[in-house]
Each structure stands twice: as structure tokens, then as C-alpha cells.
Amino acid sequence: MLALLRRASPFRVSSVRAFSTTWSNAAPSNSIQELADLVEETQSRLEEEAEQIQEFSPSNLRTWSEGMLKFPQAHKPVTPRTFTMQDRTKKNSFRKRPYLGPSAKVSRRKDVFHQLGIDPLQESLNPALLSHFVTDMGRVMGRAETQLTWRSQRRLSKAIRRAKMMGIIPLHSKKARL
């Protein structure tokens, strides 16, 4: 908004405060030079993009698909950079798959409940054991952290929820160790 005021008015904005603006009649300094620099910079960018467009041959058209171009999204500002070739093409970035936990073989080896044949649901009255699988904010740790089998993780989560509802362990925090 301030930039629009500076360009539209022959007056110069001397200072800006919250909810007020002070105007002066002094001529803007170096504004013509700044404008000339901006025009030259824009012209050089346009020439570079024109060269890129000329280099773009129809043989490359086969490799392009609809999913490779980005289009402006609703409720997002559009800047001049949005229309450049580099910004309009999507980058081939592969997102790393989220770590869900160990494989079945590894988890059977690391899962204490599985090794000892203990059912986590039978331990819902044991707050000392359950507190090892709860974060400081009272959330159940994920399988990637606990290294349990799928079955033990499900049953442990159920045991923790039961213990919380019975008031054995706190709902939104980890039980303090003494």
C-alpha cells in the first residue's frame, strides 16, 4: 500500500506511523533513476525468458504433462515471479515416506510384550509400565518410537486409554517419576 502511495502521488511520504502518514512537498530523490533501473532489469528478464521460449522445441512437448505445471491458487497472492518459467514448473521432489515403525521381524525381536507373552490390556492398572509409552504431553507414543508389533501397539494404546478413563494415569501429562 505504501509503495502505491509513493508512486501515485507527487508528494513524498516522509514518515509512516500506525494509523497516520505525514506528507511533504519535497521532490522524491533518485526516483527516476530507480524507475530506469527497474525497467532495465525487467527488460533483461524478458529477453532471457524470450530466449528460453525460443529454445523450447516441440520435441520437448511429449515429456510435459498436466501435472508438471503449477497454476495460481485461490486466495494466494500473484507476483510477477509467478509467471516465470522456473516458478511455473514443478520441481521433481520426492517426499520421503513417513516412518511407520520397524518391520514385523524386527518388531517381534524388540517387542517385550510379544517375547514374554504379556497382554498389554492386562497391564492397564500398572501406571509405572504405561508411563514409559506416553509422551510428556500425555499422548501415546507412535509405533516408530515404541518398536512394538502392530498388535501390541494397538492393545497398549487401548490399555492407556482405559487407564486414563479410570484415572490411573493423568489425561494430559506424563506421570512424574519419584
UniProtKB/TrEMBL annotation:
Coiled coil: none annotated. One of its GO terms (biological process) is mitochondrial translation. GO terms for molecular function: small ribosomal subunit rRNA binding; structural constituent of ribosome. Pfam families: Ribosomal_S18. Transmembrane segments: none annotated. GO terms for cellular component: mitochondrial small ribosomal subunit. Keywords: Ribonucleoprotein, Ribosomal protein. Belongs to the bacterial ribosomal protein bS18 family. This is Small ribosomal subunit protein bS18m. It comes from Thelephora terrestris.
